[in-house]
């Protein structure tokens, strides 16, 4: 079966070290045992993707410079996409606090660098997804027909961030204000499980993955909804290297999905969002 991984970051030595030492995730990495993650050279990582049937992988950037002082990691996204353009699809990380500079950055990322979407993180930006500073970004993405990938779950022990920033009800409001905008909520908005499912159900333009929470309490709600009412709205994502790709694939293999639903979730829904089916 062909697979698209909608949230994948190559576990190169630079990436592993950057995550472990970041201002946002240093404490969280200790809490989840991230130090045990093994780094690999990029060619080995791509060979592993091929071996597991992952045809394409979306790499999302992150820019939280205003709130955490760390430079954006978009440079690595561009490097990976240039190195393996047939394997990796880049979404550029955008900091909403940079105002019009962020809008101009979207245009540059798409028109000059070949990115296929943008990525935002309300939890780390310390403002909800429906806050006014995001609206110029959504407007530009709607104009350019760019999907917006929104990280919507609160990782542990991140300084300065509160759970409310990751409430899917904020995305629901954005979806109503921008019905032309394609929105993908990452991590299923956990722990707001029912709210995430309903945001996808009632908004034609909202999708989600529930990476990192496949075996968490209430995951059965995700699985039931994915099997029935939102089977066209869920995309597979591993959240590698926070979660090992193999573990994420094993979790999905254990879900009681029909062959049709499995094809949709593992490949077809993502292909439609990314426009790959038109190629």
TrEMBL record:
Keywords: Lyase. Residues 33-276 form the Amidohydrolase-related domain. GO terms for molecular function: carboxy-lyase activity; hydrolase activity. It comes from the Bacteria. It holds the Pfam family Amidohydro_2. InterPro entries: ACMSD, Amidohydro-rel, Metal_Hydrolase. PANTHER family: 2-AMINO-3-CARBOXYLMUCONATE-6-SEMIALDEHYDE DECARBOXYLASE, CATALYTIC_ HYDROLASE. This is Amidohydrolase-related domain-containing protein. It comes from Desulfomicrobium norvegicum (strain DSM 1741 / NCIMB 8310).
């Amino acid at each position: 079966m062909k697979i698209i991984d909608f949230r994948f970051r190559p576990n190169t030595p630079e990436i592993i070290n950057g995550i472990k030492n970041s201002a946002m995730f240093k404490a969280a990495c200790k809490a989840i045992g991230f130090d045990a993650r093994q780094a690999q050279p990029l060619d080995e990582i791509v060979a592993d993707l091929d071996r597991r049937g992952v045809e394409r992988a979306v790499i999302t950037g992150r820019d939280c410079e205003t709130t955490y002082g760390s430079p954006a990691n978009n440079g690595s996204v561009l490097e990976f996409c240039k190195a393996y353009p047939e394997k990796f699809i880049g979404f550029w990380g955008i900091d909403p606090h940079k105002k019009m500079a962020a809008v101009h950055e979207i245009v540059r990322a798409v028109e000059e660098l070949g990115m296929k979407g943008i990525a935002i993180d309300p939890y780390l930006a310390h403002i909800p997804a429906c806050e006014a500073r995001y609206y110029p970004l959504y407007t530009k993405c709607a104009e350019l027909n760019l999907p917006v990938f929104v990280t919507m779950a609160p990782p542990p022990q991140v300084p300065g961030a509160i759970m409310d920033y990751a409430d899917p009800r904020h995305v629901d409001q954005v979806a109503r204000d921008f019905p032309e905008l394609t929105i993908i909520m990452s991590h299923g908005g956990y722990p707001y499980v029912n709210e995430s499912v309903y945001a996808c159900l009632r908004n034609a333009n909202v999708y989600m993955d529930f990476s990192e929470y496949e075996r968490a309490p209430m995951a059965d709600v995700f699985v039931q909804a994915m099997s029935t009412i939102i089977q066209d709205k869920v995309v597979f994502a591993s959240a590698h290297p926070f979660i090992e790709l193999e573990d994420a694939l094993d979790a999905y293999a254990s879900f009681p999905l029909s062959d049709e639903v499995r094809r949709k979730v593992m490949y077809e829904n993502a292909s439609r969002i990314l426009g790959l089916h038109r190629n």
